[in-house]
Specification:
This protein folds into 2 domains: 2-246, Carbamate kinase (3-Layer(aba) Sandwich), CATH 3.40.1160.10; 326-481, VC0802-like, CATH 3.30.2130.10. Helix 3 runs parallel beside helix 5 (99-126) and helix 9 packs parallel to helix 11. Helices cover 44% and strands 20% of the residues. A hairpin with a 5-residue loop joins strand 16 (447-450) and strand 17 (456-462). It is α/β, with parallel strands linked by helices. The longest helix is centred in the N-terminal third of the chain and has 28 residues, at 99-126. The strands form 3 sheets. Strands 3-5-2-1-8-10-11-9 form an 8-stranded mixed sheet, sandwiched between helices. A 6-stranded antiparallel sheet has the order 13-14-12-15-17-16. Bound molecules: aspartic acid and magnesium ion. The site of magnesium ion has 5 residues, from loops.
Length: 484
């Protein structure tokens, strides 16, 4: 069986929802054909499970309205209620002919949105928005889009039924960023979903939301529908988890910067995690965890170009000779350097440095220390730069006064360029090729680091040279020439 997750843009308009229905209908047919034919040889069980996000932009509208309500402004939630009602009804009106079905949906939309309005009213009365309250409000979008998609599927001849993930994904009570309880969840999913699927029903499950053991609504964090899909896929031991989005899979580089960027056929879990860490808008590592643990392949596909095979993400890929698969960049960063001869052989400087950084709750994206031990440099987001430098000056006040540490310097407007590929492990010469490519174009490399996983090399360059650096490396490894 396969899990098919459709994101906000995939269900953003009447046309795209119509497209989604066709994609699901075709998959259902293929799965059914496979079940009759070679089910025994392939060992794959039939069935399709759909997970859906809120219509594009809806979650933001809901959250903004609730926040305004807490601040005493009631206009946004009133507007949101009527806007969202119309937006969902228009789709139903255009894609569902059956009057009874349409009327039922209309009542459902109306009830959910009335409840949303009541909630916002009480938020205004209280003058306070708790994370728990926000989870109820922000999950409303999926609780509208999933019944809508289920009905559209039925209108397309697919036997389909809406299921609220509050019945399936049991989480802790970390509202806004809840964690699924992996004892309770799989059993619930199997008990509720397998009988449905065995009788030929396609469940359409709300992404993003869950509930505590006591039934209090929670959410899995922004963008959490991917996570929902992976949790459900793992619980049901799916053959593949498909993430349907608006691009042809995972690209070798950002196509807005590197014109020749193309989508990759295959990536490993490790590579996709590195890409996400370095800012590429791909699957969040947390999202992928349930799939990785169960070794279930993922596939990123394009709702707007469904015949494209997309990118398959698996445990191990066939390694390529050069090993570089993709490049990405993290921007708006600051490089901070703690330097001085007094640091040589003195234990604890690094620990104190990063303690001070951690106290500012700053996220360190890269660290590098030369073996001369005369300096440590690391990269933090620009927004946290001042606070981190301030904290270090306090932490090392004595060492600075005694000149054991000569300076705590910082450089704004830098970018980390990350070169990613699991095949770089043990392949000599890759770093040299990267630096040659940059050297030829006179691009200065300010710092470098390679994780011991060897699945990435990251370099710090000036913001003004970052795009050129990306293009240079992409060219050198011929990532745009069908090399993958
Ligand atoms: N609708 C939720 C959000 O916008 C979840 C998702 O789209 O994955 O964050
Ligand atoms: Mg999304």
């Amino acid at each position: 069986m396969i899990v098919m997750k459709f994101g906000g843009t995939s269900v953003g308009t009447t046309e795209s929802i119509d497209g989604v229905a066709k994609i699901v209908a075709a998959a259902v047919e293929r799965q059914a054909g496979g079940a009759e034919g070679e089910a025994d040889q392939s060992g794959e069980s039939p069935g399709v499970l759909v997970v859906v996000s809120a219509m594009g932009g809806v979650t933001n509208t809901l959250i903004d309205a609730a926040q305004a309500a807490a601040a005493g402004d009631e206009t946004p939630y009133r507007d949101a209620r009527s806007q969202l009602l119309v937006r969902h009804q228009v789709v139903a009106g255009q894609l569902i002919e059956d009057g009874v079905e349409r009327a039922g949906l209309g009542r459902l939309f109306d009830n959910r949105l009335r409840e949303f309005e009541r909630l916002c009213r009480s938020i205004t009365v209280l003058g306070e928005l708790t994370q728990r309250g926000l989870d109820v409000v922000s999950g409303v979008g999926e609780r509208l889009s999933a019944p809508l998609l289920a009905a559209v599927l039925r209108a397309n001849g697919v036997n389909s039924q809406f299921v609220d993930a509050g019945e399936l994904i049991i989480t802790d009570d970390q509202f806004g960023n809840a964690n699924p309880l992996m004892e309770a969840t799989p059993a619930r999913c199997r008990d509720r979903l397998l009988p449905m699927m065995q009788s030929g029903v396609v469940p359409v499950v709300t992404g993003f939301v869950g509930a505590t053991e006591k039934g209090v609504p929670t959410t899995l964090g922004r963008g959490g529908s991917d996570y929902s899909a992976a949790i459900l896929g793992a619980a049901l031991d799916a053959d593949e988890i498909q993430i349907w989005t608006d691009v042809d899979g995972v690209m070798t580089a950002d196509p807005r910067i590197v014109e020749t960027a193309q989508s990759m056929e295959e990536l490993s879990y490790e590579e996709v995690a590195e890409l996400a860490y370095y800012g590429a808008k791909v699957l969040h590592p947390k999202t992928v965890t349930p799939a990785v643990e169960s070794k279930i392949p993922l596939r990123v596909l394009n709702t707007f170009n469904p015949s494209h095979p997309g990118t398959r993400i698996v445990e191990k890929t066939h390694q390529l000779h050069h090993g570089v698969k993709a490049i990405t960049a993290v921007r708006e960063l600051r490089l901070i350097t703690v330097a001085g001869r007094g640091m040589i052989g003195v234990p604890g400087i690094a620990a104190r440095t990063f303690d001070a950084v951690a106290r500012q709750r700053a996220n360190v994206l890269m660290i590098s220390q030369g073996s001369s031990e005369q300096s440590i440099c690391f990269v933090v987001p620009e927004a946290e730069g001042d606070a981190v430098v301030g904290a270090l000056k306090v932490e090392f006040a004595r060492e600075l006064a005694q000149n054991m540490i000569e300076e705590i310097s910082h450089q704004p407007d830098i970018v980390i360029v990350a070169v990613i590929g699991a095949g770089m492990k043990g392949t000599p010469g890759i770093a040299a090729r990267v630096f040659n490519a940059l050297g030829e174009r006179n691009i200065n490399v300010i710092a470098i680091a390679q994780g011991s996983s060897e699945a990435n090399i990251s370099l710090v360059v000036l913001q003004t040279e970052a795009d050129e650096a990306l293009r240079a490396i992409h060219d050198t490894f011929e990532l745009g020439n069908g090399a993958d």
